[in-house]
């Protein structure tokens, strides 16, 4: 895959990046690109929203994180590479792709881009998080992942459909992954922006592209929140330390959740 055109990253964004020494808490950065109508994409479609400058920023951010996390919905639709393609990025600065795929529905093959990327030594192979009820022994896909240094990570769900982000954070640390860049898609992001999960989010970096994708897109809008005091609707998520940068045609918000 062709190296990416590098653009100088914005200055003075260190406070939004993982610390150089890990602190025992998983550092979580939520980052994605959105349209003006808060859509990530058109359903079942990969939509390039980021311009060259913000795509370069995303790849820059990937070199600061131990892991990059997406949901199975994204890996199935986008067939992503999930590496940093900034020229000269050493393997030691490549993030570990993590795919949330409880039912192991991703039909990974040797042609999958993330597998090819790992095979060429241009990125790391994925860890696929799967529910303990799913039979993976003898599954050809497990072998394909292991051949390039990836693995199926079996996680207890104790009958629940979803893993809590506390369980996911503990599992990441167990795997020696101490900082993660959560890139989407809609299901993953709306879940992470739910009230109870916000304390786990350290930084939010959102690219806003100058386009409307139109109704019925893959929308980012967290669950509504009402005030405990009077039961009235209040903002679902607020931010602090908010800074904006204009990169090419896109605006980028850097912020931290205001808990
Ligand atoms: N613009 C951007 O920055 C951006 C970024 C990423 C993706 N996208 C776009 O977004 C679309 C995909 O979004 P999506 O909402 O369909 O899919 P998604 O969020 O990538 O994946 C959702 C699925 O992941 C699994 N999952 C998520 N959270 C989980 C949890 N806590 N525990 C267990 N499993 C969990 C579930 O799988 P099961 O259903 O199997 O239970 C869930 O249905 C694509 O079109 C892609 O191009 C855009
Ligand atoms: N920053 C950003 N701008 C976009 O316009 C867009 N569509 C995504 N989408 C994120 C999603 O996670 C994709 O799957 C990966 O961006 C593809 O990853 P690669 O570049 O193939 O490594 N992310």
From TrEMBL:
Boundaries of every Bacterial bifunctional deaminase-reductase C-terminal domain copy: 27-250
Pathway(s) of this molecule: Cofactor biosynthesis; riboflavin biosynthesis
Annotated EC: 1.1.1.302
UniProtKB keywords: NADP, Oxidoreductase, Riboflavin biosynthesis
SUPFAM superfamilies: Dihydrofolate reductase-like (SSF53597)
Descriptive protein name: 2,5-diamino-6-ribosylamino-4(3H)-pyrimidinone 5'-phosphate reductase
Family membership: Belongs to the HTP reductase family.
Annotated source species: Choiromyces venosus 120613-1
Keyword field contains Amino-acid biosynthesis: no
Function: Catalyzes an early step in riboflavin biosynthesis, the NADPH-dependent reduction of the ribose side chain of 2,5-diamino-6-ribosylamino-4(3H)-pyrimidinone 5'-phosphate, yielding 2,5-diamino-6-ribitylamino-4(3H)-pyrimidinone 5'-phosphate.
Organism placement in taxonomy: Eukaryota, Fungi, Dikarya, Ascomycota, Pezizomycotina
Catalytic activity line of the entry: 2,5-diamino-6-(1-D-ribitylamino)pyrimidin-4(3H)-one 5'-phosphate + NADP(+) = 2,5-diamino-6-(1-D-ribosylamino)pyrimidin-4(3H)-one 5'-phosphate + NADPH + H(+); 2,5-diamino-6-(1-D-ribitylamino)pyrimidin-4(3H)-one 5'-phosphate + NAD(+) = 2,5-diamino-6-(1-D-ribosylamino)pyrimidin-4(3H)-one 5'-phosphate + NADH + H(+)
KW NADP (keyword) present: yes
GO BP term, example: riboflavin biosynthetic process
MF-aspect GO terms: 5-amino-6-(5-phosphoribosylamino)uracil reductase activity
Signal peptide (from-to): none
């Amino acid at each position: 895959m062709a190296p990416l055109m590098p653009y100088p990253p914005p200055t003075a964004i260190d406070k939004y990046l993982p610390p150089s020494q890990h602190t025992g808490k998983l550092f979580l950065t939520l980052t994605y690109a959105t349209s003006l109508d808060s859509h990530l994409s058109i359903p079942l479609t990969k939509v390039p929203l980021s311009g060259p400058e913000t795509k370069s920023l995303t790849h820059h951010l990937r070199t600061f994180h131990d892991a990059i996390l997406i949901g199975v919905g994204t890996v199935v639709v986008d067939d992503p590479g999930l590496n940093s393609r900034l020229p000269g990025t050493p393997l030691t600065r490549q993030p570990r792709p993590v795919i949330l795929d409880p039912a192991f529905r991703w039909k990974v093959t040797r042609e999958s881009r993330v597998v090819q990327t790992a095979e060429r030594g241009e990125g790391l192979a994925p860890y696929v998080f799967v529910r303990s009820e799913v039979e993976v022994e003898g599954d050809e896909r497990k072998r394909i992942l292991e051949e390039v240094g990836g693995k199926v990570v079996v996680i207890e769900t104790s009958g629940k459909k979803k893993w809590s982000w506390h369980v996911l954070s503990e599992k990441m640390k167990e795997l020696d992954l101490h900082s993660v860049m959560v890139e989407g898609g809609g299901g993953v992001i709306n879940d992470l922006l739910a009230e109870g999960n916000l304390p786990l989010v350290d930084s939010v970096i959102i690219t806003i592209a100058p386009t409307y994708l139109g109704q019925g897109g893959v929308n980012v809008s967290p669950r509504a929140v009402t005030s405990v005091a009077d039961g009235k609707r209040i903002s679902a998520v607020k931010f602090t330390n908010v800074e904006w940068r204009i990169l090419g045609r896109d605006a980028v918000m850097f912020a931290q959740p205001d808990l």
